[in-house]
Amino acid sequence: MRLDCGGIRQERSYTESCSMSVVSSLVPARFLTLIAHLVIVIIIFWSRENSVRACLPLDYTNEEYRLEDTRLVVGLSVTLGLFAVELVGFLCGISMFNNNQALLSIGCHASGSVALLFFLFEQWTCSIYWWIFGFCSVIPALYEMILFVVVFGFKRKPL
């Protein structure tokens, strides 16, 4: 059977459809946005001195600097832990082909990457990091944990 998928005529069986190409592109898109977000978090972790200074008033004490640095390190460390949860679920195949998780993850991590780039280059205050953390790291990781429970606890397929 000849199908016309986006102007490209291809030989496909009855079980394959044009939507297969869209669904199959979710996996690499999810992986790339997840890795992009991870790389930006690691860059902020390595160069956090400027981010910490942006969170402080012009005249700050060493105690204030240490407090803000500790807060940022904790936030970035928890973010890295949530990335580990997502990567384990993704790479083990628990959520690799779950379209809901893929779309949620792509949206959250793409917007998280853009927001963290602004955080880094525009030197936003540290309180904004927690908003980015909540919306762009916690939400997809919680959904991933729910999929862990569904797959391992209820012995169901994640699809």
From TrEMBL:
BP terms from Gene Ontology: non-motile cilium assembly; protein localization to ciliary transition zone
Regions annotated as coiled coil: none
Membrane topology: Multi-pass membrane protein
Cellular-component GO terms for this entry: membrane; MKS complex
Localization of this protein: Membrane
Origin superkingdom: Eukaryota
Main localization, broad class: membrane
This protein's name: Transmembrane protein 107
